[in-house]
Amino acid sequence: PGLTPELIAKVQREANREIFSYLIGEDVSKLGMGPWLNEMIGHMRDHRRNQSPHKAVVWSAHDSSLAGILGVLGTRPNAFPAFASCLVFELFENRDSPGDHYVRVLWNGEVLPVDLPNSSMDDEFHQFSALDQLARRLYLTPLEYERICKSGKPIFTRAWTSIDH
Question: What angle do CA 19, 23, 25 make, to 5 degrees?
Fold first, then answer.
């Protein structure tokens, strides 16, 4: 039968599922995404306390880094991040309640449903504290980081899939 568009689409779906399965484990999330997420949230914390000179902070990342942070946010896109994909975290202050901050997450210009503590994936805006709580859960001290790296415990799990055509 050969390669059909349906078989190619199935292989791509399974490859995406396989790649995302590597990136969503607790230790992998802490080692790979925890430091970056905590640095980003640190900038937001500083901004909330009027201790940051920055109005915007920009990072550049590889597709696998974007896939990792998408996994941490509890979302599973249908495809691996394409070239020039854009993930944006916007911090808003409630004008009616100063000091009350919200975060909106955009993926390629569209609101991204995210799974944050005490929040609904249906929400467009999430309490800053929910994202902050996620970042704190993924925080590792240098000793914890070293312990996980030296444990000899495999941090990647395989979920091999057979693709029948």
Answer: 130
Residue 113 · residue 106 · CB < 8 Å: no
For residue 165, what are the contacts with CB-CB under 8 A and spacing of at least 6? 1, 4, 7, 10
Other C-beta atoms within 10 Å of 84: how many?
A: 7
Distances (CA, A) of 91 to 57, 87, 127, 130, 160: 11, 13, 10, 12, 39
Looking at residues 44-55, what average pLDDT do you find? 90
Share of the chain above pLDDT 90, in %: 28
Residue type, 31: L
Nearest of 95, 92, 67 to residue 81 by alpha carbon: 67
What's the pLDDT score for residue 101?
93
Please tell me the predicted confidence (pLDDT) of residue 162. Answer: 47
140 and 31 Cβ atoms separated by less than 8 Å: yes
Backbone angles phi, psi at 93, to 5 degrees: -110, 135
The mean pLDDT of 123-135, rounded to a whole number, is: 91
Degrees, nearest 5: CA angle 6-10-3: 50
